[in-house]
Amino acid sequence: MPVHGEVAAPSVPGAIYDVGHDGVARVLPSVGGISLNVRVGDGAFAFVGDHIEPGVSTRHPDDKINIGYCVYASVGNRATILSGEAKGEHGTVTGKHGGIEHVMIDFTPEIMERMALGDKIAIRSVGLGLELEDGGDVRVFNCDPDLLEKLVVKRGSGKYEVPVARFVPAAIMGSGLGRATVARGDYDIQCFDPVMVKEYGLDELRYGDIVAIVDADHSYGRIYRTGAVSIGIVAHGSSDIAGHGPGVTSLLTSASGALVPELDAGANLASILSLI
Questions:
Q1: Is the distance from CB of 125 to CB of 215 less than 8 angstroms?
Q2: Could you give the CA distance from residue 190 to residue 82 in angstroms, rounded to a whole number?
């Protein structure tokens, strides 16, 4: 079914300044708006900003209705512009950002140049309630069925193989941990420890990367569980604020470790869905 939102305006923190983990106060571009030069496939650390959202940030102006908008939308869903100069053009949902409660949509640069704040958008939502046949304890969230088909390969013995661009240890996951809002939003990869950053190549994360969070169970909320595996997509960019970093929207989880992530440098939404 279609769900409707609109292009959200850029915003800044209430105090204007954000104080980083290093004690430095910064005023930076942040969430919302139309990021004309930031798309899936670009580096999550490549831009000066805080929680930068790729492409077009959208929400419904009524907060209660916006909850449904965020839950029903799934990564990979098609979006259609309903008003403005770019009316009739199409894009693709690439992630969700909790707290601010935005849905991010990728459009080509030519389309984004013709868009304006407040333009109405319809997402053809499909994916809510999606399950794998004989999936055991594997649960699916925020994922269009066509994207799921491109991601998951059944290996037998109850195991499912998924290509991922990076492995992330659950121990460094931050903001969003513990929240029972896995059907929307995200949680952040803290990248303040240079040892972990180097070991896992976290400074090379890109918007749209498919990542495996090891020892993380998202079945009923985001928790640490030894042996569990959760798969998600990098939905927003880096942050200097303590407890924050590139945000991951959940796609798949298994408490028993039935998901088998396989390292693949091409495991990015831009390549999987041919967005660039």
A1: no
A2: 37
Q: Which of 119, 34, 111, 123 shows the shortest CA–CA distance to 84?
A: 119
Sign of CA dihedral 76, 125, 139, 229: positive
Tokens representing 55 are: 């492409």
Give the domain ranges of the chain: 2-124, 139-272
Q: What are the residue ranges in the chain where pLDDT is below 50? A: none
Does CATH number 2.40.10.170 belong to domain 2-124?
Answer: yes
What's the confidence (pLDDT) of residue 18? Answer: 86
CA distance 276 to 222: 31
The full 3-state SS of 68-130, as one line of letters, equals: HHHHHCCECCEEEECCCCCCCCEEEEEEEECCCCEEEEECCHHHHCCCCCCCEEEEECCCCCC
Structure confidence at residue 200 (pLDDT) = 94
CA distance 54 to 110: 15
Query: Measured between alpha carbons, how far is 65 from 218 in angstroms, rounded to an integer?
Result: 24
Greatest Cα pair distance, the chain, in angstroms, is 53
Write down the H helix ranges in the chain. Answer: 63-72, 109-112, 145-151, 194-200, 269-272
Res 276: pLDDT: 74
CATH no. for 139-272: 2.102.30.10
2-124 and 139-272 share one CATH topology?
Answer: no
Instruction: Output helix, strand, coil percentages for the chain, rounded to the nearest 5.
Output: 15, 35, 50
Report pLDDT for 46.
95
